[in-house]
Structures are given as C-alpha cells and as structure tokens.
Specification:
196 residues, nine-stranded mixed β-sheet, three-stranded antiparallel β-sheet, 5 helices, globular, disordered N terminus
Length: 196
C-alpha cells in the first residue's frame, strides 16, 4: 500500500476525478476571493462532545502536528524515512493517513497550484490550515472509482515539500467527515502547545 500511495503521489500530474469537499469558507480582504479555511477551533469541541478518543501526532523532521483517532496505528517501518515517508498511519478498515517529506521543485504554493491545474489535477486550491497555507488536491484511486486520495501539500522555509494524504475518501459522509477533522487539526506544533 505504501508503494501505491507513493506511486500515486508521483503520478498526481496525470490524474483528475471529481468529489465533493467540505470546509468552511472565509472572504479574504486582500484578494476578495473565497478561501477554504480549516480551523481546529471549529471542530475540537465537537470531537470532545462526541467522545471520540484521539491524539496529536508530531514529527522529528517538521514542526507540524495533527489529530488522529486512536484506531489509527503507527505503521511506519524501518527504511520508510529513506523513501520520504515520515508518517504512516492505518486502521483495520484500510483507512490511511500518509505524510511524506522531500525536496521541493516549487518556490511557492501559487506556482505549485498552477502546475497542478495545468496537469488537470482535480480540486486544486490554496487553503488555510490554522494559519498555514497549503495546496489541497484530489487524486483518483485507479482501482476504486468511488474513492479518492484527499491530499495537501505544504512548502517549508527550508525548500522542502510536505504532503499529507488521506485515503479513502468517498461519497460516504463518514470518510469525508474524518478527512475534514484531520485537515482541520493540521497546525504548527507550537500553536498546539500555546493552546494547551
């Protein structure tokens, strides 16, 4: 499965498929455009009220964190980091969240988004995740017409690209809700510490 996800990320410039996406919208004063904004403050109380147990995961390579339900276990194996994987989480129901970290070919998110749109990647847009800017996009699952990989790409100041991939996301509301909750929790590690 890891190799399939890596392969899908590499082939992202060749694919496109529609799927509905959930997110709050906010008007940006400067551009006057609607920008998706994912906020932990919008979902954390709902998670607590629903009594969903989970934890925040962190990484040695980047000061980034996000929330995962406890049924996601760490599946990262020795040698995965050499292939660019810094996080690999899965459930018994074949749900996955994968985090990669590699050198970037892009200097800014606008350039990345423009290249993805030129290659007809679906769902490409710049979004905000608790103050972080990222490019959101969708990749099809070649083996399952009803599922997509919901992906985010963030660029670091050091010239690297971080991708977070959530799979599967289908028309089923529970898979979209899970993806929305995870995306809404992505934030700088120090922001979570400051809120604690």
């Amino acid at each position: 499965m890891k190799k399939l996800i890596a392969f899908m990320l590499v082939l992202c410039i060749l694919c496109s498929i529609p799927v509905s996406a959930m997110a709050a919208k906010q008007k940006t004063a400067a551009a006057g455009e609607e920008v998706k904004e994912y906020l932990w403050s919008d979902v954390k109380d709902a998670i607590k009220e629903a009594d969903v147990s989970g934890r925040f995961v962190t990484f040695d390579e980047i000061a980034l964190t996000f929330w995962l339900p406890d049924e996601f276990t760490d599946m990262l194996e020795e040698g995965d980091k050499e292939d660019g994987f810094i996080g690999y989480y899965g459930t018994e129901n074949d749900e996955y969240v994968v985090v990669t970290y590699d050198e970037s070919d892009w200097d800014d998110l606008e350039e990345l988004a423009k290249d993805m749109i030129a290659e007809e990647i679906d769902g490409v847009e710049i979004v905000t995740l608790n103050g972080l800017s990222a490019v959101e996009y969708l990749l099809p699952d070649e083996d399952n017409d009803e599922a997509v990989y919901w992906c985010l790409a963030l660029l670091t100041d050091a010239g690297n690209i971080v991708t977070i991939t959530i799979y599967p996301v289908t028309s089923e509301e529970d898979t979209q809700t899970l993806a929305f909750l995870i995306l809404s929790s992505i934030q700088p590690e120090d922001a979570l510490e400051a809120a604690a």
